[in-house]
Amino acid sequence: MTTTLITGPTRGLGRAATLALAAKGSDLILLGRGGTALSRVAREARALGVTVHEVGVDLARLADVRAAAATVRGLLDSGAAGPLRALVANAGAMSADTRTASADGYELTFAVNYLAHAQLIGDLLGSLTEPARIVLLGSNTYHQNFWRRLLGVAPASWADPVDIARPATGGQNPGMRASGTAYSNAKLALLYYAHELQRQAGPGIAVSVYEPGWMPGTALSRDAPAAFQAVGRALGRLPGVATPRRSGPQLASIALDERWSHLRDGAFVVRGKVTEVRPIAHDRDRERRLWAATAELLARA
Who contacts 117 (Cβ-Cβ below 8 Å, separation ≥6)? Predict the structure, then answer.
């Protein structure tokens, strides 16, 4: 029996992927904020005939992430769960104010999207049963094309990771463009991390990155101004826009299905198609520096 761990399982893409994983017969370890939403999706997954463990965690607190990883290791070591063959780092956030800090003092978007998952994966890497897969959630927003420029979607603006992790200062909110840049930086960091993680993890663990497609109006923007969320909901009704219902099963497939077993080295899958990343997303010096800086940032917390 296969066990899959997924973060952010309670809504949107994560919920759809969780139920698709259960429908494929994978036992589950669900890492999310404890409460009724986590219990509800766990019940729905159990109704599909699989074993489900709920682990409450606040990804904005690295101590919480470490405690959750310890709980998962306990489940695996005792035989209550496992073998763990897939880890899906799905959870994400986009803070509306880059001055907002996590519990550990890091810019919130970078902390939740990137640092929390780097901590979790580092703590559980030795607990995966090979062959295993790690799937990270990426985004094409790291670079700008015609449509993203038209819609005002900010691309990444890379800097040293220690600087990216530092919250903005000043009395005035830098605004949604700064929030977009922070989100795109976090997603570019995940691409760099995926490449370096593959080098560190060895041949028995395959690392890939999934981009579900543009999915406006989801919980990702829940901290954004009401007008911004309303526009997102309207755009979400356009034909061809990605939805959790379509992308969730795709994410589950990448985590489990044989047809994706060849993916590794941070392969970037965009809406079901393996896609070459832009040259900016392959940089050995940045990848090495990110790996070292991540260890430094996690050690401080």
Answer: 7, 59, 89, 91, 136, 190
